[in-house]
Amino acid sequence: MTFYCEKMKIRLFTIPNMLTLGNLVCGSSAAIALLTNGDFELAFWLVVASAVFDFFDGFAARLLKSTSAIGVQLDSLADMVSFGLVPAVAMFCWYGNAEQAMQLPENIVNAGAYLTLIIVAFSALRLAKFNIDDTQHTEFCGLPTPANGLFCLSLAMLAAAGEFALSKEVILIISILMATLLISPVRMFALKFKGFGWSGNEIRYSFIALCVALIVLFTKFAVPAIILLYIVISVIRWAINLRKE
Description:
By secondary structure, this protein is mainly alpha-helical. The protein has helices at residues 15-37, 40-63, 69-97, 106-115, 118-132, 145-160, 168-182, 202-218, 222-244; strands at 4-5, 10-11, 139-141, 187-189. Helices cover 70% and strands 4% of the residues.
């Protein structure tokens, strides 16, 4: 079923747009899971679902040749919730549950919790920049918001499950570092293949092979390990390209 906005002739309920709305609903549900029940595991899997919807909405738009201006804007609005708000909420909740490494006044500790929300602010900047930057079709400028979202949610989930523990101070540092990466000038490769041959896709095939190895080696910690690998490879690649220029 397709609905139109009569004056502007905008198709609202297309298949790609419905997939994007699936991303938004999963992200909204993840935020509710965190804020009402502190359920980090459910929130993580809902963000994984959001990432799947985020991948397939663009794929469907290209396959069905139904790309549109409203689809582009809707995608960023959904990403803002799923990969901007939700990771910020996850870090906020994780911070609240963590122990302190240093004895600080209560008002400073409470203020630190709200500093984790730098993630949602910088995610907004990242997405706004992406929408007007024509150089990000084949690679990204700064860490993509889905990668940041999966990293934050996976760490928070593992910590909530008792796999490891970090102090409030470290959680705050991680939040600031990841937020900074979102708006950094580092050019990060995209998993958009140029055909199926090795030539031109060397870094992508190599990255996928390393991801498989990390899944086997680290199992529960595979997601944060993969995101860290992506960041390290991208930074090295960017630095090499800068030196060549």
